[in-house]
Amino acid sequence: MARGDQTQTAVLGALSVMPMTGYALRSEIQNTLGHFWNESFGQIYPTLAELERQGLVERRGAERTGSSTFAITGDGTARLRELLAQPEQPARPRNGLLLRLFFGRQLGPEACRDLVEAARRRAVEQLAHMSAVREELRNDQQNTADSPYWLLTVSAGEHAARATIAWADETLAALANLPAEENP
């Protein structure tokens, strides 16, 4: 699936839950999908305009883009289902931490330890956040049809955080066994 199609999927998917403004859409994507997906205002507004042009969303309310509410149309729902049925195209990973560790000899074990400890702290925070999101979804009485699916993504976030914590613990133990070196 091309990047533009993925943006359409995120926008149409969010609007399938409820109509909202472009600003609210960006906030909703950031707050609910943020542990695995993001979109910028620079992607959302052109996508909304294109989806409106195609008749996949309709504008309700004020004429200014920032105050208009957008709602998915029947054709938009059909397009969303079509996009969701397409095979997922894995993105090439870009991980700044692993890039630094790969060339870690240049930093030395202590600097690498600091990087890994920071990654571990972030993973612990992410795990706590995912736990809070899980509890919030369990108590949500409005989106009961969507909740089981949303919980699948929360579970992925929890597993990823636990995996990062386990990897960080293993990596810190390995770094502790390396001799302190001077930078070459």
From TrEMBL:
Occurrences of domain Transcription regulator PadR N-terminal (ranges): 11-82
Gene3D superfamilies reported in the protein's UniProt record: 6.10.140.190, Winged helix-like DNA-binding domain superfamily/Winged helix DNA-binding domain
Residues in Transcription regulator PadR C-terminal domain copies: 94-175
Pfam families linked to this entry: PadR, Vir_act_alpha_C
InterPro entries associated with the record: Tscrpt_reg_PadR_C, Tscrpt_reg_PadR_N, WH-like_DNA-bd_sf, WH_DNA-bd_sf
Protein name, UniProt field: Transcriptional regulator, PadR family
Species in which this protein is naturally found: Cryptosporangium aurantiacum
